[in-house]
Amino acid sequence: MVKETKLGRFSSKLLGWRMWIQTAFLLLWLDPLGLRMHTMCSPVFHCYACPLATFACPIGIIAQFSALHVFPFIAIGMLVAVGAMFGTLICGWVCPFGYLQDLAAKVPTPKFDLPKFTGYFRYVMLIGAVLAIPYFFGEGHPLFVCRICPAGALESAVPTMAGQAIRGEKVIWPNALKMTILIVFLIAIFFIKRPWCRVLCPLGAIFSLFNRASAFFLRFDAEACTHCERCHKLCEYGIEPEKSPNDLRCIRCLECTQCSPDALTLGSVFEHSSSSHNNNQ
Amino acid sequence: MPGGAPGLQNQCGAEKVPGGFDSHSPPPFLTVRVRIWGTTHRLRRIRAVMDSQDYGKTKVVVLCGLILLGGSLLIYGTLFHSTTVSAQQDGQPVMLAKSESALIKDASVSGVKRDETGKIKQTYEIGEKAPAACST
Fold it and tell me: Is B114 close to A48, i.e. CB distance below 8 A?
């Protein structure tokens, strides 16, 4: 049996405050001081063309640098360091685009689940639209990630069009594919929980690769587990946490840690455990 | 098993096929299926090792390695990495060495592009203001 840890108890207390923590992080990403520090990337999915963007989007920078045939040391270094520490904890607790989807999911509409294989499309998006297409065809290609990204459409294109309309200028519409993806996204977020994160997010695809090796992880105690499968119901993303606690599809919202036998807790490599039995990671 | 296992006496070179010894080599698709099964089986074993306690110490080493790698890339990119960019000043071409941070800022507003010759060009003249937003 695993000894209860400080981190596990702390994360249990924080769970009820998750949305407030996500709101607090908005103060970091939405540039309240007008600093526009676009010389640095953030580890979250937030379009740098947004009028309220403090930092540059790491996916946009990786794609732009791929088009320039220059290796993005800063973006990759930051993602590797943050991913190795936290994995997809960033997705579940910090990312503003994920937060937007969480807010939309609160609307009482029927919710549908997605087949498991849809999670692999994120890697197709990462390899295709972020790396290969910019590298071989340049930034002007219609499938360049920024040209189809709903975050860019929602956070940049829509405010820009609104500003043009208010000023009485000619409104320049984004391309048809971007508009279609945006409309599908805006409908999907009310009927599917975190559709972008689960199906197409290339940043989540990168962070998910670190889930099994990150400093912070989901600890599963097989001895405490009563196989009640309550964690299946607590998980909102179709994962079976007791079978795959650090699944590639997991966004580490930590809802499954509410399971009453405390078989699932947040763990870290910095803890000392006096348990003589293994805690599966 | 009386008579030994099916196959050549030296148990060498015979493909194991359902039903026992067959002197003919199996069709190519069966070999591929065996290989795919072997790969899947190996991946499952790797995953089981990763989930075991023995992996804990290895995981710390891997983790430290990743953080070191990420930190090194970050420091190199921030302090040392630069790229040669061609720009226009008063109609004359000039070559600039841009730090990666400056390149990130320019890339975020489509201020740099790669031309057909493979050179990176600044899309606005020196002295002019950079574009206000990304062209995408």
Answer: no
Question: Across the A/B interface, how many CB contacts are shorter than 8 Å?
Answer: 132
Own/partner contacts of B5-14, CB < 8 Å, gap of 24 or more, are none
Domain ranges of chain A: 15-208
Q: How many CB atoms lie within 10 A of CB B127?
A: 9
String of DSSP letters for A59-81: HHHHHHHHHHT---HHHHHHHHH
Is the model's pTM score more than 0.90?
no
CA distance A43 to A56: 9
Instruction: Tell me how far apart the alpha carbons of residues A3 and A224 are, in angstroms, rounded to a whole number.
Output: 11
Could you tell me which residues are beta bridge partners of residue B17?
Answer: B20
What DSSP designation does B114 have? Answer: E
ipTM over 0.90? The verdict is no
CA–CA separation, A209 and A206 (whole Å): 6
pLDDT digits (tens, 9 = 90+) for B87-121: 888 888 889 899 999 999 999 888 899 988 889 99
